């Protein structure tokens, strides 16, 4: 199976966090060590759609892939420059929530054979759903990288006060939909210092998560909810709004909470966490159910289904690892 991944989200020196989840999925696919899978990737900067189309026309002229799979709605258009039996597209949120992007993305749907969304909630917002079939294909969390670490050591390495209250806002404060204003209000109400990730190198993010007493995600909308899963893989308490996969991920995990944003109610939940220094949640097993490896297997199985390709022995081995998704 010859597959080309096309994405406008990919880490760069200027924006090291951009699209790290797409890179993690690509690595997870390669680590499946499936002899039938030949995987390539074409990454380009956000906004460079015309140049990307020209580049792919030149680079892949005369070649035909079994699958060309694009990440992010607008990326579908340049990906169509490459010949394939199946053209796939995974929607991630902004491509549906932003009015102009939604219109351009929707116009590409007639040319897409495999349409997917990063979460069931996002799938329901896709124009034409449920008449239009939408697969659920998130990238998943890199549970090999996001692991519990010693909080005291993490704080020392990040030059943070060992005795301070810290809350982590796991996003760039300049992204309006992530609602940094809400995070600041809650941190102030709890007399806690607020940490942010912004342009932190992805390799350092596990330290910042483990250094925090809790991770807070007060977003208006999430296409998926990766930050919550990363915290859960590190067994750090989470308070998050019910969007994306937050409810499915957090539900039933003691010490973590999924509820509509309200400064007072969120502060009360966080005080419960602060009252238990060094608190760790029993959430890693749940995070593993959303792992990059499991989601890569799900994606590979979906490609095979659309190609009507019989499972070979390696694929059968992977199928044994694949369990029912948490949202199924």
Automatic annotation (TrEMBL):
Q: Where is the Glycosyltransferase subfamily 4-like N-terminal domain?
A: 49-145
Residues in domain Glycosyl transferase family? 191-288
- Please provide the record's keywords in A-Z order: Transferase
Q: Which GO terms describe its molecular function?
A: glycosyltransferase activity
GO BP terms: lipopolysaccharide biosynthetic process
Signal peptide stretch: none
- Name the chain's protein: Unannotated protein
Species per Swiss-Prot/TrEMBL record: freshwater metagenome
């Amino acid at each position: 199976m010859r597959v080309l991944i096309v994405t406008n989200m990919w880490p760069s020196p200027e924006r090291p966090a951009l699209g790290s989840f797409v890179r993690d999925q690509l690595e997870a696919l390669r680590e499946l060590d499936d002899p039938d899978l030949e995987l390539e990737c074409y990454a380009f900067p956000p906004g460079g759609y015309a140049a990307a189309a020209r580049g792919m026309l030149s680079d892949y002229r005369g070649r035909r892939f079994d699958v060309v799979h694009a990440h992010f709605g607008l990326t579908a258009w340049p990906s169509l420059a490459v010949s394939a039996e199946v053209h796939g597209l995974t929607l991630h949120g902004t491509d549906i929530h932003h009015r102009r992007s939604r219109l351009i993305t929707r116009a590409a749907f007639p040319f897409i054979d495999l349409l997917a969304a990063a979460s069931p909630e996002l799938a329901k917002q896709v124009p034409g759903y449920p008449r239009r079939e939408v697969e659920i294909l998130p990238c998943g969390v890199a549970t090999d990288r996001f692991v519990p670490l010693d909080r005291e050591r993490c704080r020392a390495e990040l030059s943070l006060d060992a005795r301070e209250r810290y809350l982590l806002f796991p996003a760039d404060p300049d992204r309006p939909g992530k609602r940094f204003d809400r995070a600041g209000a809650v941190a102030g109400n709890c007399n806690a210092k607020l940490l942010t990730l912004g342009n932190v190198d992805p390799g350092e993010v596990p330290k910042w998560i483990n250094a925090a007493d809790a991770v807070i995600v007060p977003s208006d909308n999430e296409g998926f909810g990766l930050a919550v899963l990363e915290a859960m893989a590190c067994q750090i308490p989470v308070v998050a709004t019910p969007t994306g996969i937050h409810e499915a991920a957090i539900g039933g995990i003691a010490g973590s909470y999924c509820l509509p944003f309200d400064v007072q109610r969120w502060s009360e939940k966080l005080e419960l966490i602060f009252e238990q220094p060094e608190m760790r949640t029993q959430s890693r097993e749940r995070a593993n159910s959303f792992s990059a490896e499991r989601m890569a297997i799900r994606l590979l199985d979906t490609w095979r289904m659309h190609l009507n390709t019989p499972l070979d022995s390696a694929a059968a081995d992977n199928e044994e690892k694949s369990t029912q998704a948490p949202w199924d």
